Amino acid sequence: MEYTVKKLGELAGVSTRTLRYYDEIEILKPARTNSSGYRIYGQREVDRLQQILFYKELGVGLDEIKDILDDPAFDAKHALMEHREKLLARREQLDQLIANVDKTIHVKEGKMTMSDKEKFEGFKQKMIDDNEKRYGKEVREKYGDKAVDESNAKVMNMSQEDHERVTGLEKEIKETLAEAFQTGDPTSDIAQKAADLHKEWITFYWGQYSKEGHAGLAQMYVDDERFKAYYDEDQEGVAEFLRDAIHIYTGQKS
Q1: Do 142 and 170 share a structural domain?
Q2: Positive/negative CA dihedral, 180, 183, 184, 185
Q3: Which residues contact residue 86 at a Cβ distance below 8 angstroms, ignoring those fewer than 6 apart?
Q4: What CATH number is associated with residue 31?
Q5: Beta bridge partner(s), residue 36
Q6: Same domain, 236 and 167
Q7: What per-residue confidence (pLDDT) applies to 142?
Q8: Which of helix, strand or coil describes residue 152?
Q9: CA dihedral 178, 183, 187, 192 (to 10 degrees)
Q10: Residue 81 backbone class (left: φ over 0; alpha: ψ -120 to 50; beta: rest)
Q11: Is the pTM of this model over 0.90?
Q12: CA 186/CA 249 separation, integer angstroms
């Protein structure tokens, strides 16, 4: 079956503007253009759009999706199986949060008690799952499954105070880093404060701190586009500045 832009948009729940944009960036080209100048999409394009939307739902950027789908080794069935596993993991995450809410409601109604640790289990599991989804593959390849599993276990055993502190640290690091970046000097006191805060943040996750590991992680922030995008969200060059500050802090000057 064939579809015009309008019909395909209605079928998939996306706007015609989005489909035209996908055509412009060549992530989803129409099968052909008819004599009236309308874009026409066939079954191959429908299946490709489904894959695009699956990857988008999982937080993958359009540039990366295009690279994945255009790879000659791309296997649609294998990709669907991976999508299914990730969606099941997301469902499990949501189920845990729903269960946490239900327990809290019962506590408020006086029907049961709930420990402070239980109150935060769903949130901590979500933190782990989000990190696995975003960076799990690269971090496991770099540091090994054992180190990552130990880190995840440490997160789950965090006290309420630790959980609040590590959550607040993320904001404090970005604010301090933004101020330090304005100096342009990674050796400045404020830049070194950002590096020290970053050390405090990672010690909540790492079983054992090492200067070499800290410096290596900072380099990965520059080498991996997803980490780089996080730190460069407000201003380009912040990831490299943080890397330089941490390398100075750890004595591993680049």
Answers
A1: no
A2: negative
A3: 58, 133
A4: 1.10.1660.10
A5: none
A6: yes
A7: 65
A8: helix
A9: -30
A10: alpha
A11: no
A12: 9
**For the chain, what is the radius of gyration of the CA atoms?**
23
Q: How many domains does the chain have?
A: 3
Query: Are residue 129 and residue 105 in the same domain, yes or no?
Result: yes
Q: What is the pLDDT of residues 145-203, one digit of tens each?
A: 776 777 677 666 667 777 788 888 989 999 999 999 999 999 999 999 999 999 999 88
Q: Give first-to-last CA distance, the chain, whole Å.
A: 57
Residue at which a domain ends, from 98, 126, 156? 156
Q: Are 102 and 119 in contact (CB under 8 A)?
A: no
- Of 22, 52, 70, the domain-final residue: 70
- What range does the domain containing 134 cover? 77-156
| 98-142 per-position pLDDT tens digit | 776 776 776 677 776 655 555 556 666 666 676 676 656 766 776
Spatial neighbors of 243 by CB under 8 A, at least 6 apart, are 218, 219, 221, 222, 254
Residue 71 has pLDDT above 60, yes or no: yes
